[in-house]
Amino acid sequence: MTTLQSKTQSCLKACSVALLAGSLFACGGSNNNAAPDPVVPDPEPTPETIDLSFMIQTHTGARLSDVTVTLDEQSAQSDVSGRVEFSPESQTSYRVRAEADGFVPQVLRVSGEQDGIMPIRMVPVKQTLPVDDIEAARTLSAVDLGARVTFPANAFVTPDGETDSGEATVQITPWDITSDELNAMPANGQATDAGGESVELISAGMITVDVHNAEGDYLQIAPNTTAEIQMDLPVASINNEPLSIGSTIPMWHFDEDQGLWIEDDSIIGTVVASATSPVGLAVYAEVSHFSTWNWDFKFENGGSINVECRLSDSTAIPCGISAGVTLDDGSVFIRNGYLPEGGSTIINMPNSATIDWYATSDTGLIGEKTTDMSADVIIELENPSSENVVRCELPDGTGVGCEVTLTDGTETLTQSVPAEGATIVTGWDSLDENSELTWPAEPPFPISVGGQQVIAEGTATSGITGNVDVALAITPIDEVEVQCLGESGVSIPCTVDITATLSDGTVFTDTDILIQDSLAVAVPAEATLLQWTAESNGAFSQNGQFVTMAGSMETSLVSSVAVVLDETVVQGPAAQSIEISCINGPDTSATSCDIDAFLEGNRTGYVELGEFEAVALGDSVTLEFPEGMADENEWVQVRVTGDDGSTAYTFSQYGSLTDGEMIELELQCSDAVGGVSCPQ
């Protein structure tokens, strides 16, 4: 993805240089031996400068103050409106970096031809996990998008190349590729492929992993070592191309120095099964270093659209622009950039899409519009309808990052707000000076307060302007809803062990917790890191074999956990299907029979497995068993009824059946079988 295209020339400040002329005065008469006048070199021309303006926002559009923005070698802080300005020497392009506590840094390159205000969007860090022994092998899981990171023992080195151990902090941020989080995609999606060509990207998954030791050093993966990264794929196709298990996706990492995505053709991303994804798919890769990694396809389309910002009187003005493009299959990409006065044509767009436009001027005017690709777009900018500085705080007054869902009873808007607060503006037509706004808020994930993990919630009300301080009430987390899932996403009865590291360094354990479907498990609220180890209760049918299943993960203390049982141990063969037929007994004269099969067990209850009518004697039918059947406490009952009124049945433990086994039932007329009398 590139910034919006501009054909306007640079707006340069004219800098004049005054040359001062001096006179030489001689005392007395002439001096034929006088030294010649010194040669004064021409002064160096003063470099031309340009004005560059940026609007720093969250991915949802809240304006961020006190963000450190660096343009090449110059640094400045964003003001309360999120704005920051520079006047650098004129050049072709600039590298811009924005950083703030609690946010993934944003880096991008901007053109020296910019003459409007450029939006810079940032996404909050989603998961922070403290570990006491970074040298240990482990799998760390985020609560969002099924994201997890797996690394072997002794996997990390310090900046000087020494293997690190002891305490460390791991930050994991999976990006939701179907949401406005893509507004903050580093570099606005600008990339260089393996052949050195500039390309634009459409993402199938993106994850940021940062690891720091107790001294604050940034840790990297040791040479000749790899880590596994995985996250759920929320859609089944990207750019209208279907994905399935085994599909491959090019991998790209973000290079902060260049401000570009770089393709790494030595690493191939793959699509794998996921028990937690809504479409049953996840993206996976093994990587040799940590940064932000992207499973991406090149986006190459022939569509284009003309876009322009105007005032209400139709006066054309430059503006910063964000465009969220949703394709017909639900996949999403973004465009962020600036439009010159008179607008511009955005190229490499799809022929069919829904686009959510958001624009702002350098004077703070805003405009929003949703369109398709069928016509030119004119976005009208107006003064905001509301403008509030919003902050969430704990009972002791400490600020905390949160999500607020602003509403006036008609419109709603959800915004991410950092601990320092942010300015939130709307353009709602429903507002006037008497409108009351409601601000329910909560941190997106549990937070630590006084050494305890808590859930925080609160609500505030306000007018259309002024400061809004949302007071959050806290509730310690002292239990976790736990369930085990098979790789298909089906709930599996299991036994769970818990090891929790508390904030004071002590360790809490609880073992042999039996979970049938889900269970609320008591956990100390002081826990900072929890290790979950689970095994299935009994064996299950999988790919023609009985297997036991196991899984493990490490998380922060959250309100619910799903442990995926993705490790299997083969126990023996299992029946996937059997053959059933019926024959006449000594006293019967049937020509056909009806066959009914049922499953009875502790987990399943009593359910029908199959029904077959008018099966000729001597012919067989195939009864297929569903996946997930266990060899213990599950029984298969087969009943046959001849067309002469005769009957027979069998009742077998599932674990006793052999795959493909033939079961032949002999029809009877005995009163012992249901009191049935056959015709004579």
Structural description of this entry:
By secondary structure, the chain is an all-beta fold. It folds into five domains: 127-298, Sandwich (Chondroitinase Ac, Chain A, domain 3), CATH 2.60.220; 303-380, Carboxypeptidase-like, regulatory domain (Immunoglobulin-like, Sandwich), CATH 2.60.40.1120; 386-476, Immunoglobulin-like (Sandwich), CATH 2.60.40; 479-572, Immunoglobulin-like (Sandwich), CATH 2.60.40; 575-666, Carboxypeptidase-like, regulatory domain (Immunoglobulin-like, Sandwich), CATH 2.60.40. The chain is 0% helix and 52% strand. Strands 33, 34, 36, 37, 38 and 40 form a six-stranded antiparallel β-sheet that branches. The relative contact order is 0.09. Residues 1-34 have low confidence and may be disordered.
Q: Which residue ranges are poorly predicted, with pLDDT under 50 across at least 5 consecutive positions?
A: 1-34
Helix content: under 10%
Overall residue-averaged pLDDT value: 86
Please provide the count of β strands.
Answer: 56
Task: Outline the biggest β-sheet.
Answer: 6 strands, antiparallel
The CATH class name of the largest domain reads: Mainly Beta
Helix segment count? 0
- Strand content is over 45%
The domain count comes to 5
State the gist of this model.
The chain has 680 residues and is mostly beta strands. Helices cover 0% and strands 52% of the residues.
